[in-house]
């Protein structure tokens, strides 16, 4: 019988635990293929990314995977998608490359210009809202006045940029709504972050005789006291139940905690500050701090 020593067993165990050569070869990193300038003769440039270079067709602008950075796969793309372009001279592909670069720059410039025009349009819409002017004034007065001034002071190129401003009635109305929603969200965010807040409440009617609930809020922001207009909500009747339900629905929907409310100011109307069933009484019933 063959005798197996302890050292032999340990050696065999160590050899068993060692990874095989075949498994280590499978774990080798995937090869990252680099772009060769000679690929332009086939009709391909690249995306310019050093970490993940990918070939781009100068004819259709299609960007392929890094694995396709091979002459045979590049030829396959041309043969399949652009067979009529096969065998074209190098100068032809150079012109296509310049055209591709120009189109990229045009898209970038167009996007940047549109962003500036949109921002300017929002600024003008804000002015219209602040002055209370009709929304049609943007297209009927402001835009023609800007064109007249720019046409006199600057060249035609600047005038073409001004023509990109969109100030139609619907656009002004929509952007004022966007600004209003953004301002309201920012105000709600500040009120939520404030340790305490107080409300000033009033019930009034608009020019059509419809009842409206108007609410102002005072809160702490950046260690300073601020007071802003919170909301104006329509109500059917000016009763305490109607006013409270409308106010409570708004506060709850915006995620504001009643426990942070430390004060409520009214004009002294019975529906707002009566003893038994007023708005103040109902707020006290749901305010935990008030019960304490």
Strand-pairing-aware structural class: alpha+beta
Number of helices: 11
**Gap between N and C termini, in Å?**
91 Å
Kindly provide the radius of gyration, computed on alpha-carbon positions and rounded to a whole number of angstroms.
Answer: 35 Å
Helix content: 40-55%
Order of helices and strands: HHEEHHHHHEEEHEHHH
Number of extended strands: 6
Strand order of the largest sheet: 5-4-3-6
Show unreliable segments: 1-28
> How does the major sheet shape up?
4 strands, mixed
Report the sheet-strand fraction: 5-15%
Average pLDDT, rounded to a whole number, is: 81
Please tell me what the overall shape is: elongated
Q: Which key phrases capture this entry?
A:
four-stranded mixed sheet; Transposase; alpha+beta; two-stranded antiparallel sheet; elongated
What does this structure look like?
- By secondary structure, this protein is α+β, with helices and mostly antiparallel strands.
- The chain is built from 11 helices and 6 strands.
- The chain has helices at residues 6-17, 21-26, 71-81, 90-131, 137-153, 156-162, 169-193, 240-253, 270-273, 279-286, 288-291, and strands spanning 44-46, 55-57, 197-205, 211-221, 224-234, 261-265.
- A 4-stranded mixed sheet has the order 5-4-3-6. A two-stranded antiparallel sheet has the order 1-2.
- Strand 4 and strand 5 (224-234) form a beta hairpin.
- Helix 4 crosses helix 7 (169-193) and helix 5 packs antiparallel against helix 6.
- The longest helix has 42 residues, at 90-131.
- The protein starts with 5 loop residues before the first helix and ends with a helix.
- Residues 1-28 have low confidence and may be disordered.
